[in-house]
Automatic annotation (TrEMBL):
CDD domains attached to this UniProt entry: STKc_CDK10 (cd07845)
Organism of provenance: Camelus dromedarius (Dromedary)
Localization in the cell: Cytoplasm, Cytoskeleton, Cilium basal body
GO MF: ATP binding; cyclin-dependent protein serine/threonine kinase activity
Residue positions binding ATP: 92
Primary localisation category: cytoplasm
Top-rank EC class of the record's enzyme: transferase
Domain Protein kinase residues, every copy: 63-347
Protein name: Cyclin-dependent kinase 10
InterPro entries reported in the protein's UniProt record: CDK, Kinase-like_dom_sf, Prot_kinase_dom, Protein_kinase_ATP_BS, Ser/Thr_kinase_AS, STKc_CDK10
Disordered, as annotated region: 357-387
Keywords: ATP-binding, Cell projection, Cilium biogenesis/degradation, Cytoplasm, Cytoskeleton, Kinase, Nucleotide-binding, Phosphoprotein, Serine/threonine-protein kinase, Transferase
Quaternary structure annotation from Swiss-Prot or TrEMBL: Heterodimer with CCNQ, the interaction is required for kinase activity. Interacts with ETS2. Interacts with PRK2.
PROSITE patterns: PROTEIN_KINASE_ATP, PROTEIN_KINASE_DOM, PROTEIN_KINASE_ST
Amino acid sequence: MGEPEPESEQIRLKCIRKEGFFTVPPEHRVRLGAAQVSVSVFGSLTASTFLLQLGRCRSVKEFEKLNRIGEGTYGIVYRARDTQTDEIVALKKVRMDKEKDGVPISSLREITLLLRLRHPNIVELKEVVVGNHLESIFLVMGYCEQDLASLLENMPTPFSEAQVKCIVLQVLRGLQYLHQNFIIHRDLKVSNLLMTDKGCVKTADFGLARAYGIPVKPMTPKVVTLWYRAPELLLGTTTQTTSIDMWAVGCILAELLAHKPLLPGTSEIHQVDLIVQLLGTPSENIWPGFSQLPLVGQYSLRKQPYNNLKHKFPWLSEAGLRLLNLLFMYDPKKRATAGDCLESSYFKEKPLPCEPELMPTFPHHRNKRAAPATSSGTESQSRRCKP
């Protein structure tokens, strides 16, 4: 029998929501910096307990907020200056107003995942800082001057094909890194792709991201913004793999090439119909297990025997069409992986991808934004970003 834990090593915290104190269980005293955290450990912890795991946190008062640059489901984002270093950063306030049991699980997932991720094409979480009281938490992120959704709405001329290839290659490299680390992003879209003035593209917003293992455990199908949602999600699968991210990459690539969203559905039924119009009607022959998906019986699919990608992109090379078709395979098991895409001949033929540092620079629309894009931007921008 082991020795009892010395009294001096016990950690007792004052409860924020009720009177009294509580002792932090030993199994909760893990270090986030070591990137060994399971989100489930923190499921019911208050913010104060959570911050204890992080060690000493700086105050948000050490940052000068310059302007608001966005607002999502999980928090408000500001452009800010670190007064200690003069570095410009993105300061994301964790939304706590609806939480009764501590830090939102979405934010815990984002923090614990980002603390262990380091890749040039993944947004960097630098540190976590606190506000005036322990229930106010901010994430300090690396700052990017642009997001692709705003660029697409405001740029005078579309991206060239060489520039599209440059962007998508970077997305694929970041995604390959995520998938190799058993992480599914689950919300890839142009508004979650950021770009620096040096042409570096970074995937952001990991509020819906999940680590997965083998065997894959069931997850809710209500993920991924509608326009980028894979058909297996629309048809109710609870088994999610990295293939749902790859479908979204196909939508992003097509959107950049066509200069407009490829599948802008107004409802789940409309979204399924747009997919069938583009790719043809799915069947057991091309998608084994299709007829057993939970929501198949709720849709009356039109009979459409043809794949119309070539008619949609008549100017695209055979290699480009082949890549799109691999990304839009109905059967998730046959869909291209990030590694497959990186080896595609499409990126090796002319026009070759331009180098990131040769990407054009654009006016800093985010720096001038005083209100959320969803309230002041166009309807297209708003709907592109909605789940």
